[in-house]
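tool=predict chain=A
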Amino acid sequence: MALTMTDAAVTRARELLTKYEEDRWLRLGIRGGGCSGLSYFMDWVTEPLDKDLEFEFDGVKVCVDRKSYLYLNGTEVDWKSDLISQLFVFHNPIAKRTCSCGESFGL
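tool=predict ok
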């Protein structure tokens, strides 16, 4: 398994990248906390850390620290846009429960 991004997520990430003048990486990770125990985070960084795992999806460079990858392996990142919200959505096969907003999960 691996980390994947849908075409919609890649398109949205590329749109967000246009506000930066220099090259950026999309950092994905997991932190303790949130209403279900663990929460997802996303951030733009100028370069990955030495031990990060690196991915590229149609020009979008993504980095993940090794500890977070244990929880993200097999996850699909998608972009959802409807009348109520616009957000990145994580479809994580190891999540046993998620909060209603989709920002946190539990095992």
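The domain at 4-101 is CATH 2.60.300.12 (Hypothetical Protein Aq_1857; Chain: A;). The chain has one domain: 4-101.
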